[in-house]
Every structure is written in structure tokens, then in C-alpha cells.
Specification:
The protein has 100 residues and is an alpha+beta fold. It has three helices and four strands. The chain has helices at residues 16-30, 59-75, 90-95; strands at residues 3-10, 36-44, 49-56, 82-87. It has a four-stranded antiparallel beta sheet with strand order 2-3-1-4. The protein is globular and about 40 Å long.
Length: 100
């Protein structure tokens, strides 16, 4: 079953175009992760948060990525990583134009 992973964490920036410039290499690395179908990057400068919504081929790939990425974020100095893992109901998502 395809698996959705939601991650968010405190982030002091950069945001917007500066974030794009700073994180391009990381984005290219994430694109190569096993089982990843897509990622939507999220940011909120007002609340000082960032993260992403990911779609993986299966739960095992999502959980392996979550473990690795949590360690990486902690190495970057991120104090708290919030995450949720969901199975995707592809039939209902297709009705509502979900990109699954």
C-alpha cells in the first residue's frame, strides 16, 4: 500500500527563494531515496516551521526514510521532529484527484 509521510519541525529559516537556494542539494538527494514517489516541501515563516509531505511506495520505505531523516535533522540541530505515517486509500483519493 502506498504510504504518506508527514514531517514538520521548528525551523528558523531561510524561507522562500533563499530556502530553495540553500536546500537544492538536499532536495536532489531526497529525490533518490528508495521508494519515494514525490515530496511536497512545506514552510511557514510566520510560525517558524518547515517540513514536507511525502508519498512512498510502501510503509517500509517511508519508515526507513523517517528514521534516516530524523537522524539527519537532529545532526542539523533540529530539536524536535514531528511525524505521522498514513496508508493511502488510492480508490477514494483518485475520486478526489489525489496524485497517487
Amino acid at each position: 500500500m502506498k504510504t504518506l509521510l508527514q514531517i514538520d519541525f521548528p525551523f528558523d529559516g531561510p524561507f522562500g527563494d533563499e530556502m530553495t537556494d540553500a536546500m537544492k542539494g538536499l532536495a536532489e538527494s531526497i529525490a533518490q531515496e528508495p521508494g519515494l514517489i514525490w515530496k511536497v516541501w512545506t514552510e511557514n515563516a510566520a510560525t517558524r516551521e518547515a517540513g514536507g509531505i511525502y508519498l512512498f511506495e510502501d510503509e517500509a520505505s517511508a519508515r526507513a526514510y523517517l528514521d534516516m531523516h530524523t537522524r539527519r535533522l537532529k545532526e542539523f540541530g533540529v530539536p524536535e521532529v514531528n511525524a505521522k505515517v498514513f496508508g493511502v486509500n488510492e480508490a477514494l483519493s483518485a475520486i478526489d484527484h489525489g496524485p497517487v
